[in-house]
Amino acid sequence: MTYSAGITGIGRYLPEKILTNHDLEKMVDTSDAWITERTGIKTRHIAAPEQATSDLAYEASLKALADAGAKPEELDMIIVATETPDYKYPSTACLLQAKLGAKNAACFDLSAGCSGFVYALGIGSQSIASGLYKKILIVGAETLSRILDWTDRNTCVLFGDGAGAAVVERVEEGYGVLSLDIGADGTGGEHLIQPAGGSRNPATHETVDAHGHTVHMDGQDVFKFAARKMPSASKKVLQKAGMSIEDVDLLVPHQANLRIIDNAVNRLKIDRDKVWINIDKYGNTSAACVPICLSEAQEAGRLKKGDNVILVAFGAGLTWAGALLKWAK
Ligand code: UT7
Fold first, then answer.
1. Could you confirm whether 22 is annotated as catalytic?
2. Ramachandran class of 144: left when φ > 0, alpha when ψ lies in -120 to 50, beta otherwise
3. For the chain, N or C: smaller number of CB within 10 Å?
4. Which of 37, 49, 273, 70 has its CA nearest to residue 143?
């Protein structure tokens, strides 16, 4: 027996503090002009010192649950996609479960870089389609500000903190997730890596002195991967569902660089008005980008029942993930 599974509630949370490009000019050798031209980013949000990833996830989850009219006890599973968990263990999903009082939910974190939320949607929707579960919470949440090297202009200007959450459950037949294209190319792992703190390079004074616990990235290699994978994953999900780009009402791409988004728009030949872009406000919030966009799009009245929506992302791994949904609410 298979069931249609889709998103029935969505929410987002951005911490209050805003860091502008002009603020960054005072911290590293950069300029508002360079950041704006090369990335499209103007501002990003930064978590307060007492806030960790599960706190951001909690705020977004409350909104998603309210939007779906769901109670925490009804959740069968919680997946938190993150590269910045509160701790190595327990999982951020378990911490979130405790905060929500979602005592009936199985919980785990998912590590797929910026593709994490769409990976989680893939796993979550299939768990519902199979009949295993009925109601799932999927979250993309990050406090990247905690793992940035604030002396490295190549990376510190790019990222921000935030969270987005979605309730996934059975929906009317023919609605919800129609197709998925989820994959990875592990040979590119070193291009985007936090090299220290795991079993390869456990934390030592030396790893801390060498900034090994921060984001290390070969920007151009990741850029090339993204330029290929965002269009190809979008085309694959359309092909699997027997649709073409003209059928798409909204494209929600991962927000890493405006030039990567523009490249995808050109290659896909999609009307730019159909693409949700908020990178100027939030920068790259990794796994949180896609659900934050979805939440904004819903609030702006850009998601109507029956709309065909593509979610597409790429990230550390290297990973990619695309999903085509017929919006179900
Ligand atoms: O979610 C996945 C995460 N990551 C990504 O998606 C990143 C993908 N890559 C990118 O978005 C771009 O490659 C970057 C934005 C990271 C870099 O842009 P780029 O056009 O590839 O610049 P570049 O690395 O080729 O650097 C060009 C110049 C260099 O100076 P020189 O060597 O030409 O003198 C950099 O040192 O720009 C310099 N530069 C900066 N200058 C001012 C690099 N970062 C900055 C900065 N401010 N923040």
1. no
2. alpha
3. N
4. 49
Rounded to the nearest angstrom, the distance between the alpha carbon of 225 and the centre of ligand 1 is 15
CA of 283 to the centre of ligand 1 (A): 14
Q: Where would I find the H helices in 151-288?
A: 153-156, 205-209, 219-240, 258-268, 279-282
Calculate how far, in angstroms, residue 192's C-alpha sits from the geometric centre of ligand 1.
Answer: 14
Do the Cβ atoms of 304 and 292 come closer than 8 Å? no
- Phi-psi category of residue 242: left, alpha or beta, with phi > 0 → left and psi -120 to 50 → alpha: left
DSSP character at residue 26? T
Rounded Cα distance between 281 and 233, Å, is 26
For the CA of 256, the closest atom of ligand 1 is 6
The verdict on whether 284 is a catalytic residue reads yes
* Side chain identity at residue 38, one-letter code: R
Query: For the segment 289-307, what is each residue's pLDDT rounded down to a tens digit?
Result: 999 999 999 999 999 999 9
Closest CA to 132 of 5, 7, 241: 5
Given the structure tokens 């593509």, which residue do they identify? Answer: 310
What DSSP state is assigned to residue 241? Answer: T
CA distances, 279 to each of 40, 147, 159, 248 (Å): 7, 20, 10, 21
Please work out whether the CB of residue 224 comes within 6 Å of at least one atom of ligand 1: no
Residue in this structure with the two tokens 């985007």, named with its chain if needed: 192
State the helix-helix crossing angle for 32-39 and 258-268, rounded to 10 degrees. Answer: 20
Ligand 1, residue 254: give the atom nearest the CA.
1
The protein residue whose alpha carbon is closest to atom 16 in ligand 1 is 219
Helical pair 116-129 and 289-299, crossing angle rounded to 10 deg: 70
Regarding pTM above 0.85, the answer is yes
Q: Tell me which residue has its CA closest to atom 25 in ligand 1.
A: 220
Distance from the alpha carbon of residue 71 to the mean position of ligand 1, in angstroms: 44
Q: Whose CA is nearest to atom 6 of ligand 1?
A: 256
Q: Judge if the beta carbon of residue 222 lies within 6 A of ligand 1.
A: yes
> Would you call 278 a catalytic residue per the annotation?
no
**Per-residue pLDDT reduced to its tens digit, 116-156:** 999 999 999 999 999 999 999 999 999 999 999 999 999 99
For ligand 1, atom 44, name the residue with the nearest CA: 154
